[in-house]
Description:
Strand order of the largest sheet: 6-3-2-1-7-8
Oligomer: single chain
Distance between the termini: 19 Å
Shape: elongated
Strand content: 35-45%
Number of strands: 11
Helix content: under 10%
Number of domains: 2
Number of helices: 0
CATH topology of the largest domain: SH3 type barrels
Amino acid sequence: MALGIKKKDTVAVLSGEDKGKRGEVVRIFPDKGRAVVAKINLVKKHVRPTREKKGGIETIEAPIALSKLQLICPKCSQPIRPKMQFLADGTGMRVCRKCGEQIL
């Protein structure tokens, strides 16, 4: 499955409780089709106390489906679906469909 989204990309949330928010991708789970985005999809988790940590309720970022995310172009700041262009040596690069700028 071609994802089009990588770690450290800025993405926009298309649907759900956090619709319209933007954040940076922290981690990708390609086999599950999900990603963890900073400060998006926050959930409460009950944590048992250990020797190092005090127990209680923590707020963590839960994975969100990749279908609910869309890449933000760094140049035009628009949500886009990236286009793949292949160079002569066979390496691919992501390109913005709106402004034509290469996305690193």
